[in-house]
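re: ur question from earlier - yeah i can do the single chain one, its not a big deal. heres the input i used so u can compare w yours
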Amino acid sequence: MGQAAAWAGKNVDGAIALVLAVVVGVLGVLPDDVLSDKVKSQLVSGTTLVVLALVATALLRDRARQEPVEEAMHATSGVLARLPERLGRLDQLEELVAGTRRALEDMAVIRILGSRHEIAQAHADARRGTDHWTFKGGTGTYMRAVTLPECVAAARRDRRHLTIRMEIIDPTDEAVCESYAHYRRSLSDRPDGTGEMWTTERARKESYASVLAAFWYRQRYGLLAIAVGLSPVMTTFRWDMSDHALIMTSEDPNRAIIAYSGSFFYGSCGAELRTSFEQARRLPIDRYRSVQLSDEPTVEEVRRLFDGVELPLPKSFTDRDVVDVTRKALRAKDPYAP
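and the output i got, formated as tokens:
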């Protein structure tokens, strides 16, 4: 009954028309002694008009109900028409969010080092357990003094393979040696951490010393694969890259940048270092057996080695200069030591 009453309330005009139609039907079958034909005709005509009015009312009401639906459908169609544009904006928003997330991730793996201690510790951490080391810089003083002997010692202790790649300025190119020495002097008119002033002659000796150190360590550790490239162009930065991190230093001993493996910066610098090394003049390290170097190489051994690898020492170099190159190669001073 409740459902019937609810239905009747929502459809009152239809219910009334239905009731009237039933009444008219009942009146139509009543005998003539109850109602005359004239009365029946009048009742049927009046009832029919009422039913038609109710039907018209129902139609008008349905049309009134339909208009909001049509408006809603029209609005919906407009929204659907703009949907591709909004989806495009959503894709742009997703790309922006993804780009921002990548930038934040890269920032999380790039740091500025602000002291000698931090820089030294970062190098020590980068050397720990690495199988590869790439260096690009001026003459490789820190490379000879710390990185190369420490990496070789750790690899020998663990009996593992070690790959090292060095790119330094070409000692036979007087122009680049002079440019490098002038740059270092322009930053400071005092001796550096080694106690020496920078001159063209010193730049040449330091670079020759790095070459000698590469051959000396190659002869003494069979699992060392070392490559040396000589560049005609100097750089104001030094790159040290291991399996774990990339450290970029400059002439400021208290400032450096470190980026960890997996970051965009680390990968980009790795590609830069490979490309730069491919353009440098490669030394024939495979000739390391041509001259056997003593634990303390003699002047004659050093001269014959450089002649054998097509990197002859300048004729102006005296025996004392050769001894100086040997000392720098095997007993280099850490320029960043306190």
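The chain has a mean pLDDT of 84. not sure if urs matches, ping me
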